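Per your request, structure below.
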C-alpha cells in the first residue's frame, strides 16, 4: 500500500514538473528560479546586450552643476521613497545629479514600463521609413493571431494608445494571468496568442502591457531583427550612450519583453528624454520624425477614461504619459516602482528619477510621487 502511494506521489511530481516545461506553465518554473520582480532582474533573468558603441558623448556639466540644493521637505520625500538616482538636465547640460544607496553613474537600473516609450519610438521610425504604411493599419497585417478571436479591427494606433479592447487585464495579479505569463513565461508570442476581444477597440483607454508586447512583435517583424539590436543601432550609438544596456528576454530567449525591462544607467535614460525634447533630433541627425514625436506626446483625447466617468483622456498618448503640475506640462516615461523620465519643454529640461518606491493609490492615473519629483526639479531649474 505504501509503495503504491509513493509511486502515485512520484507520478504526480513528475507530471507537475513536466507541465512546468510546457508553454502554459513555464512561467511557474521560471518564477521559482528568478523570484519576485525587482529593478535588478537583469542579474537573474535572460538578457540581450544593447551595445552603446564606442563614440561616447558625455553630458556637459553646467557651470552651476550641483550648486543648487533641493528644499529639505522635498528631499525628505525623495530619500524616503528609496530614490537611487535623480538627475536634472537643462539646455542640454547636467545641472543636478545625486545618487543614493550605493548607486552611481555606472550602475544599471531596470526601467519596467518606462521602456514602453522606447518601443513607441521604434514604431515611429518604422512609419517614417515606410516599413509600416500607417498607424491606421490593422495589427492583423503583421501579427497573424489578430486575424482571429475578434481582434481583426484592432489598429496599430489602438495598441499605442492602450485602447485595443482585449482581455489583457493589468490588474490581474493571479498566478495564471496574462500578466504573470508575460513577465515569467517562455514565449511572449504564446502570451499574445492568449489575447482575445473584450470590447470594441479605439473607444476606451485601459492600461495593458500586452498591447506593447504586440507592438514589439510588429517591430521585430518589420525590421527583421531584435529590439535590442535596433535600440543599439537607432538610439544608443547615435546618441553616444555612456554604457552598454541590457534588455530582459522571455524564458526561451525568443523575444524581448517589449512592455518593460530595458536596463541602463541614469545618464543614458536621460538621452531618450533629450531626444523627445529635441523633437526626435539628436545633434544633426533626425532619428524619429518631428511629426511622430508630436503625435506620440499628444493626449489621445478621443478616447474615454472609464475609470473617471468616461472623461476624455488627457494623460496618455502613444506610450507616453502627460503630467500637468505646478504650472508646467511634462511628458513622461513611467515605470513600476518609480522609474521616470520627464520632459519639460517649457523649461527645456529633462529629469530622471530611478528607485524602488512603493505603489500607492494614483491621482488621475499618476503616482503622487510624480508631483514631488517635478517640484524638486523646478527648484533647481533656471
Amino acid at each position: 500500500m505504501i509503495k503504491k502511494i509513493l509511486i502515485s506521489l512520484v507520478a504526480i511530481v513528475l507530471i507537475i514538473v513536466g507541465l512546468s516545461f510546457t508553454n502554459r506553465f513555464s512561467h511557474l518554473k521560471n518564477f521559482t528560479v528568478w523570484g519576485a520582480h525587482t529593478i535588478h532582474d537583469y542579474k537573474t533573468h535572460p538578457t540581450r546586450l544593447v551595445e552603446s558603441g564606442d563614440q561616447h558623448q558625455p553630458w556637459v556639466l553646467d557651470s552651476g552643476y550641483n550648486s543648487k540644493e533641493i528644499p529639505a521637505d522635498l528631499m525628505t520625500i525623495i530619500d524616503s521613497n528609496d530614490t537611487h538616482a535623480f538627475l536634472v538636465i537643462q539646455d542640454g547640460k547636467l545641472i543636478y545629479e545625486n545618487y543614493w544607496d550605493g548607486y552611481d553613474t555606472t550602475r544599471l537600473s531596470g526601467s519596467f514600463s518606462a521602456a514602453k516609450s522606447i518601443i513607441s519610438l521604434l514604431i515611429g521610425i518604422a512609419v517614417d521609413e515606410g516599413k509600416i504604411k500607417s498607424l491606421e493599419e490593422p495589427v492583423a497585417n503583421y501579427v497573424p493571431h489578430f486575424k482571429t478571436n475578434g481582434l481583426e479591427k484592432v489598429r496599430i494606433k489602438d495598441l499605442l494608445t492602450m485602447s485595443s479592447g482585449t482581455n489583457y487585464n493589468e490588474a490581474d495579479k493571479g498566478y495564471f494571468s496574462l500578466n504573470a505569463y508575460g513577465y515569467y513565461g517562455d514565449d511572449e508570442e504564446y502570451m499574445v496568442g492568449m489575447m482575445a476581444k473584450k470590447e470594441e477597440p479605439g473607444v476606451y483607454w485601459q492600461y495593458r502591457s500586452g498591447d506593447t508586447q504586440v507592438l514589439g512583435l510588429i517591430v521585430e517583424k518589420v525590421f527583421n531583427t531584435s529590439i535590442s539590436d535596433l535600440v543599439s543601432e537607432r538610439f544608443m550609438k547615435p546618441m553616444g550612450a555612456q554604457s552598454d544596456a541590457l534588455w530582459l528576454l522571455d524564458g526561451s530567449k525568443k523575444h524581448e519583453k517589449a512592455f518593460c525591462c530595458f536596463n541602463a544607467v541614469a545618464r543614458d535614460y536621460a538621452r531618450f528624454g533629450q531626444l523627445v525634447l529635441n523633437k526626435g533630433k539628436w545633434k544633426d541627425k533626425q532619428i524619429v520624425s518631428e511629426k511622430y514625436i508630436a503625435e506620440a506626446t499628444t493626449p489621445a483625447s478621443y478616447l474615454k477614461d472609464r475609470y473617471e466617468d468616461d472623461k476624455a483622456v488627457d494623460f496618455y498618448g502613444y506610450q507616453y504619459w502627460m503630467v500637468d503640475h505646478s504650472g508646467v506640462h511634462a511628458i513622461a516615461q513611467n515605470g513600476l516602482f518609480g522609474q521616470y523620465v520627464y520632459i519639460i519643454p517649457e523649461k527645456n529640461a529633462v529629469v530622471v528619477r530611478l528607485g524602488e518606491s512603493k505603489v500607492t493609490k494614483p491621482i488621475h492615473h499618476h503616482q503622487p510621487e510624480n508631483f514631488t519629483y517635478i517640484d524638486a526639479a523646478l527648484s533647481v531649474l533656471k
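The first helix runs from residue 2 to 20.

Regards,
D.
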